[in-house]
């Protein structure tokens, strides 16, 4: 959950309100309550909230009508609607008017908890990447958020927020972009986000893996060919560069191109024209090239494997994607994102991840990055028979964490000492070390310590620790 988020509960059934209030307060939320839509509107006029969870069928006004009116008062408020009388029509009506999600009673509390978590994280991301200072910037920020949402990029770490800001900065231009990063970090998703946030978003986005084709086939795929250019060429065929005219072309693993193909691509980038195989006339092309590589292209240039002039042509702007091990605070968010995605795809009621499994996901080094995490969650959901992913559904490599050791062993004081005070001081030091490791994230800290989040929160308050002081990993306790 997002700490200190404010939630308004709206339902004419007091028992439902009471249960939801307990769950949300345990998650650190500030909760307001209303027994009718009219009362909810009065509260929203006085004090806007981050999210509204509302029943649909109420005596004075429906939840959908409340949503429509509340949109005028607080357009950024997230709406989650629930009802015991589900129908396709009401679901579509709710979603068309801006509801984030729609639940049918009875539902699992973990299901609602996940929906609230995801909705608030997306709202927080929207606020981070937009940060508008005027109307034009606000519009650009909204377009960027929509582009990130469509491209399925997930992450709230400082490094990913920097990636989002770079995407927002470069998207509206026409410069070529090079995305650097290890395999599995999501380079194509970033390329799609650049395209979706650009003026070319309504034109084609074409992707090709340059390392997946031999030279002759890659040339025909990119540039096209004329009838009779080679055996089997029975008709003219447009290449991908021409097919993407007006849009964007994503050249993945461009470092695997042969030297001959590099020369031909450089010519196209310089002249904005191409000649199909077997053709005699050049064809003008208007495409934005976005390239990516998991190789060190500077080192490849030194070895004579990659042309320096092509590098400077494609790397006008470079976006560096961090490996997953360098943004561990995104692991839980990504894991729940994939959990929701594959549970829906498989038609399975798997709503959460057990603390033990989440601890293993956090402790693993992920050499295959986000792609490996996605495959791990897909496998776990497929095998799971309960409503929460259990640790034994994870691959052996993910489960086998090194034993937990104390890096700073304590030393007994000289002479006699007060045991309770000594243990309290030791407990404070341990919690501070874990909060430093998780940069103040209490959810992750609770996983590391194998405590419930309310229990950890109680200990933090008792010991007088400020978790926010650990953001940036520089605080001392």
Describe this structure in words.
The chain is built from 20 helices and 16 strands. By secondary structure, the chain is an alpha/beta fold. It folds into four domains: 125 residues, 3-Layer(aba) Sandwich (Rossmann fold), CATH 3.40.50.2300; 171 residues, P-loop containing nucleotide triphosphate hydrolases (Rossmann fold, 3-Layer(aba) Sandwich); 75 residues, Orthogonal Bundle (Helicase, Ruva Protein, domain 3), CATH 1.10.8.60; 52 residues. The strands form five sheets. A five-stranded parallel sheet has the order 2-1-3-4-5, with helices on both faces. A hairpin with an 8-residue loop joins strand 11 and strand 12. The longest helix has 22 residues. The chain is globular. The chain starts with 5 loop residues before the first strand and ends in a 14-residue tail after the last helix.
